[in-house]
Amino acid sequence: MENILLRKVTLNDIDQLQKIGRQTFFDTFAESNTEENMKEYLDNRFSTEKLHSELSSPNSEFYFALEEDTVIGYLKLNFGESQTELKDDKALEIERIYVLKEFHGKKVGQLLYDKAIQVANQTKADYVWLGVWEENPRAIAFYKKNGFVEFDKHIFRLGDDEQTDIMMKLQLKS
Q1: Residue 65's beta-bridge partner residues?
Q2: Alpha carbon distance 71, 24 (integer Å)
Q3: Half-sphere exposure of 12 (CA within 13 A, CB side)
Q4: How much is the pLDDT for 2?
Q5: Which residues contact 22 (CB under 8 A, 6 or more apart)?
Q6: Which of 8, 28, 33, 119 gives the lowest tally of CB atoms within 10 Å of its CB?
């Protein structure tokens, strides 16, 4: 989409980040999880304090996808010690790519993904990795289409529910 702009998120954007983060996560996973688990996850992972800490970290970056002045999606990247798992200095983690439902199928996710690969190349990462819920076939297909392969699994906790994430990797350098 030619009218979609990407912009790095700053501390001044924390309210917008909180709103888009909560809304897109809820829309994606609410029907597959209990209300209590969703509430706990959203309250903790998208609290002002948590987002402030992540935005202040030199090892995490967020980017908004904007249509005019409206945030319609976002990307979260982690480097080094901020990675949720591998913590490999030669890797970049895509922790989140989320897009509002009404913009699914309009290449917004692809634009955010392309930004992640651009950042990975700029930071000279050897590979990009991520975890995706095993019951999210749409996301799994998206990453496979972009060249990612499965390499492991890990547990993702949503409240008191332990869910299995498929870990996927895209090798950039050999």
Answers
A1: 6, 73
A2: 11
A3: 2
A4: 67
A5: 42, 46
A6: 8
Confidence of residue 173 (pLDDT cuts 50, 70, 90): confident
AA letter at 43: D
Share of the chain above pLDDT 90, in %: 97
Single out the residue of 112, 121, 123, 135 nearest to residue 32, CA to CA.
Answer: 135
Residues known to be catalytic: 143
Give the containing element (helix H, strand E) for 64: strand 60-67
Among left, alpha and beta (phi > 0; psi -120 to 50; other), residue 124 is left
Between CA 90 and CA 165 the distance in angstroms is 22
Order of strands across the sheet that contains 161-171: 4-8, 60-67, 70-79, 91-99, 127-133, 161-171, 149-158
The predicted-structure confidence for 33-53, as pLDDT tens digits, reads as follows 999 999 999 999 999 999 999
CB atoms within 10 A of CB 159: 16
- Report in angstroms the alpha-carbon separations of 10 from 121, 159, 170, 173: 22, 28, 28, 30
Provide the pLDDT for residue 132. 97
